[in-house]
Amino acid sequence: MTGKPLSDSDWSGLVKDMPRIIKREWQKLAYYLPRALVLLLLYFFPGFGQTIAPVLWFVFSAWILSIQYCDYPFDYHKVSFRHMLSALRQNKTDNMQFGALVSLFTLIPLLNLVILPVAVFGATAMWVDRHRAQLALHR
Length: 139
Description:
By secondary structure, this protein is mostly helical. The protein has helices at about 10-40, 50, 55-75, 80-90, 90-105, 110-135.
């Protein structure tokens, strides 16, 4: 997408990056779980849990999907999780729309089979268009 070749990665580089990659996945899980549990608890409040909690859950899912798919290019360029969240919050509307569309498209049979790689490509395109120049300093 940029016209530049990708950096060469071999197996030794992947093995060397494994601790960083595992830490990154733990950071995403630690970000997700407390928020998901609070939203789950909202379902137990009569009235509120049946009307507003599903809407909040959809909005939260859109945000989490945006984080999940944007993490591929951010992590490839070794931008920290904290800096990634900060960058995503700066363009929150665009990222929420991206996550909401991914969430909606996963509900459509057959389209849900191809939406995952398309979402990774879309997140990579967002990286190139919006975040690459700004976050190249955080490597």
